[in-house]
Design goal:
Belongs to the class-V pyridoxal-phosphate-dependent aminotransferase family. α1 runs antiparallel to α10, α3 packs across α4 and α12 crosses α13. This protein is globular. The longest helix has 26 residues. It is built from 14 helices and 15 strands. With 399 residues, it is an alpha/beta fold. It starts with 5 loop residues before the first strand and ends with a helix. β8, α7 and β9 form a beta-alpha-beta unit. Helices cover 43% and strands 15% of the residues. The protein has 2 domains: 135 residues, Aspartate Aminotransferase, domain 1, CATH 3.90.1150.10; 238 residues, Aspartate Aminotransferase, domain 2. It has a 7-stranded mixed beta sheet with strand order 2-10-9-8-5-3-4, with helices on both faces. Bound molecules: pyridoxal-5'-phosphate. The site of pyridoxal-5'-phosphate has 13 residues, from α3.
């Protein structure tokens, strides 16, 4: 059969065709009225997509650039900070905060799990200046309890700012930045917003803007206050990734349109985002049910599975690479193996962004084919068991 390449990876994710066309047509200079109109519109759309009244800043960088900006802009050397880590991206927070000279306390949960609020509470000090965490840990497919952590900080009357890497959380998890009291919420372009890598965005609370007046870690290219000043005039401080900004506008239009009604054919971004989250939740629930029906085990604990990506364990004694390679060689379907020391021990199927029912059924069908072709040791496996489970979940959730 011919092979049609499809990404099932938690970033980069499949591209929205309308966004690709917008990129190709984005032949505009960034110091012109045309760009200012585009940038102003996209920044306003992003606020609605994030679901906040706070200012949103766009950076022309990978998601890690926005993580670094939140550390360099919000901390000073010697600041005591708390990192909540349960995977490769949590470890990135530790690396970044240490690189900027913070005194770092770490609550570390084993890969494939999350920390308890008691652990967070015990590690929180009077002098903790900021807490850094992921909304969803893409390396393990685990969702952390951001609302619980935000509440805990509030109850303790903590001065600590809550900085959330929601690079795969935005568009896959219901997050209420303003209601819960998140101070910085970070997203990336190659995740739920369906465009290529190269843009990061952060929503920043007033408390965080105030903190920046006093912090003094070095920053130049990623100076958030400078970007905010320029954004108010419809510009960025330096040459931005114009094409990706045009693509982002097209993608946010598409997300809004998912909530179109006859009265409002343009749709609505807040409602569109909810649909995007529900879409990811449904694709994830279908995939979890299918994996379990096939006799495979999930890595994330019950109730804490991320909708961004499902991490599945291979059968005992099998390297997950066999499944990853099987899907690629037979179907050109790209799923990801475990990261770092998790390589060989799990594989991940993504649901964030431009994935739908059809994609989900296809990857489950392909996984069944690979299970047989690779003779995976799954004693009760039969063709169709995974697909039936997924069909039932879809029918139940979309009744
Ligand atoms: C992808 C990802 C990042 C890193 O983004 P880059 O664009 O690769 O820098 C950070 N955190 C999480 C949770 C991610 O999924």
């Amino acid at each position: 059969m011919i092979r049609k390449t499809r990404l099932f990876t938690p970033g980069p994710t499949p591209l929205l065709p309308a966004a690709q066309f917008a990129m190709a047509a984005a032949d505009i200079h960034h110091r012109t009225p045309e760009f200012r109109a585009l940038y102003t519109r996209v920044l306003a759309q992003l606020k609605e997509f994030v679901g906040t009244k706070n200012d949103v800043i766009i950076l022309s960088s990978g998601g890690t650039g926005a993580m670094e900006a939140s550390v360099s802009n919000l901390t000073s050397p010697g600041d005591r900070v708390l990192v909540l880590s349960a995977g490769k991206f949590g470890e990135r927070w530790s690396g970044l905060t240490k690189a900027f000279g913070c005194h770092v306390d770490v609550v570390e949960a084993p890969y494939g799990s999350t920390f308890t609020l008691d652990q967070v509470s015990a590690a929180l000090k009077l002098e903790t200046r900021a807490v850094f965490v992921q909304a969803t840990e893409s390396s393990t497919g685990v969702r952390h309890d951001i609302k619980g952590i935000a509440n805990l900080l509030k109850e303790n009357g903590s001065e600590a700012l809550l900085v959330v890497d929601a690079i795969t959380g935005l568009g896959t998890t219901h997050l209420d930045m303003d209601g819960w009291g998140i101070d910085v919420l970070i997203g990336g372009s190659q995740k739920a917003v369906m465009i290529p890598p190269g843009l990061a965005y952060l929503a920043v609370s007033q408390r965080a803007w105030d903190r920046m007046e006093a912090t003094y870690n070095p920053r130049y290219y990623f100076d958030l206050r400078k970007e905010r000043k320029n954004a108010a005039k419809g510009e960025s401080a330096y040459t931005p990734s114009v094409a990706l900004i045009a693509a982002l506008g097209a993608s946010l239009d598409y997300i809004a349109k998912q909530a179109a009604t006859p009265e409002s054919p343009e749709g609505n971004l807040a409602e569109g985002r909810k649909k995007l989250v529900d879409n990811a939740e449904t694709c994830a629930a279908m995939t979890r049910a299918a994996a379990e029906a096939m006799g495979l085990k999930l890595f994330a604990p019950k109730g804490y599975e991320a909708a961004a990506a499902t991490a599945i364990l291979p059968p005992e004694g099998t390297d997950s690479g066999v499944i990853v390679k099987g899907l690629k060689s037979k179907f050109a379907a790209i799923v990801t193996d475990g990261q770092g020391e998790m390589k060989g021990h799990l594989f991940r199927i993504a649901h964030l962004g431009f994935f739908d029912y059809m994609d989900t059924i296809a990857i489950i069908g392909a996984l069944e084919q690979v299970a047989v072709a690779a003779k995976l040791p799954l004693p009760n496996f039969e063709f169709g068991k995974g697909l039936i489970a997924a069909q039932n979940v879809f029918a139940e959730r979309t009744k």
